Amino acid sequence: MAVAYERIADTLRQSIRAGRLKPGERLPSEAKLAEEFRRSVPTVRDALRVLQDEGLIEKQHGRGNFVRRRRTLALRTNLRHQWEKNRARKPLEQRARTGATEQDTGLQVDDLVFSASYREIEANEDLARAFGLPAGTTLLERIYRTRCTAESAPFSLVTSYLVHDLIAQNPDLLDETKEPWPGGSQSQLHSVGIELDRIEERVTARPPMPEEAEELELPPGTSVLVLRKTSYDTHDRAVGVSYVILPGDRTEMLFTTSLERW
Predict the structure, then answer these.
(1) What pLDDT, on a 0 to 100 scale, did the predictor assign at position 1?
(2) CB under 8 Å to 103, separation ≥6 — which residues?
(3) 20-79 tens-digit pLDDT
(4) Most exposed among 102, 161, 239, 247, judged by the fewest C-beta atoms under 10 Å?
(5) Domain edges within the chain
(6) What is this structure's pTM?
(7) Fold type of domain 74-254
(8) Which residues make Cβ contacts (< 8 Å) with residue 58, sequence separation at least 6?
(9) Beta pairing class for 74-77 and 251-254
(10) Sheet containing strand 138-148, strands side by side
């Protein structure tokens, strides 16, 4: 038999799912809910904690509990890489019309807010191994964030690395103010004569770090997907390494594999 706080949580859950309590709507105060359900405030708090853990409501400090707004779902497919390669050599005007995030979310360019920050670093052992270069090699670290204008959390946390000497012949590639680059990373690499041959992606899941959970605005108990992407050129060199932290509550990954016919 369900205990009191579970029955309260179930009633509120049904109201949210049926649309009687709408996204962004504030719930009655804990005192009013306690009066409505004829239970104690601590029992109501237990019920609200269950709904918070399920990601149905969120507590805003000093304001109360609100029905959590639905976040834009991102559908990330492995076909995005060929799509990006097909665009890499297109005219600037055509490349500027849309990008990978728009493909993943169905949004338009004007629906998005983008930021980028660059810095030079020395490759640690892990990155040096990935690139097949000595530790201490100069890399360009690039941090990207993209979010919907109607939301405050980004779709993902992206940290990307390029070998500095491979791209230095085009100074624009070292300049964060040139972002967002129409056509994405493959178009950037094409500008210095690099063509990608293949992209390897490894995906794992884990609990988020506290700073990741805060930036992605994750409900308690939500995992993140960690995607490590390594890009290889037609000379079998690793020319790019990226780490993408994806929120588990609003990311779907789709892998399509074409099979050779007998």
Answers:
(1) 53
(2) 80, 83
(3) 998 889 999 999 999 999 999 999 999 998 888 877 888 888 889 988 888 899 999 999
(4) 102
(5) 4-67, 74-254
(6) 0.82
(7) Chorismate lyase (3.40.1410)
(8) 52, 65, 66, 68, 219
(9) parallel
(10) 112-122, 138-148, 157-163, 238-247, 224-233, 196-206
